[in-house]
């Protein structure tokens, strides 16, 4: 259960990185280049969740393991952290569409210029069984057809070693609640038109139970941070850059961007800023069982 999925497989030396995405095109690229997750965290986080630091220290700490990463291309968060991708030399990008992959390739090459990035729309990985040590994911599969979703997952587990590790992270409902409450305050009538089902909030307990079918050891880590945003253009730019807020963009455009901007500006002047709560759950599965997924 995930949203806008990407499977990205990263590896050190002559290893490849598969990367799957559910995206036929990439919108608002100019916004994405500036107002991404890392930009907002570095500028506005008032309490550190140390999430990216944890990833840098715990995912492939020895810099010699083969890894798979499922990354949400809307944020490109980890791609901005050279510490993560400098551990790898080759990336293989696999997807149904080229749009998101091309954006990924451009973004990551700007960060790690000597990284080899290959693109393919084929459904199978040119990798042997049990060749990957790590899978790291911060997205989900719920918005793609089930047969494709299970095919991707099955292929990822095929190449994961029996003693490999799968990291799965997701945003909690508190994050979306803070955005939704802001919209209700702006105009409750418009808020009712927001397609909240698109966010596909992941039930951590269900994912935990699903992982227990695949791995002999499963645990959950929790990270949190609060953003105190004081610049109206940064907040608008961030909302426009996130694909998960597509229906919110329509609502804003219909009511008028200048009107929404004035509302946010007045709120910042009155309250000193706008609070966005960001909560991340990281589920970790270790030691793969013999379960085979039906595709």
TrEMBL record:
Gene Ontology MF: a single term: S-adenosylmethionine-dependent methyltransferase activity
Organism placement in taxonomy: Bacteria, Bacillati, Bacillota, Erysipelotrichia, Erysipelotrichales
GO biological process: methylation
UniProt-listed InterPro entries: Methyltransf_11, SAM-dependent_MTases_sf
UniProt xrefs under SUPFAM superfamilies: S-adenosyl-L-methionine-dependent methyltransferases
Keywords annotated in UniProt: Methyltransferase, Transferase
Domain Methyltransferase type: 89-168
Species assigned in the record: Turicibacter sanguinis
Protein's UniProt name: Methyltransferase domain-containing protein
Pfam families documented for this protein: Methyltransf_11 (PF08241)
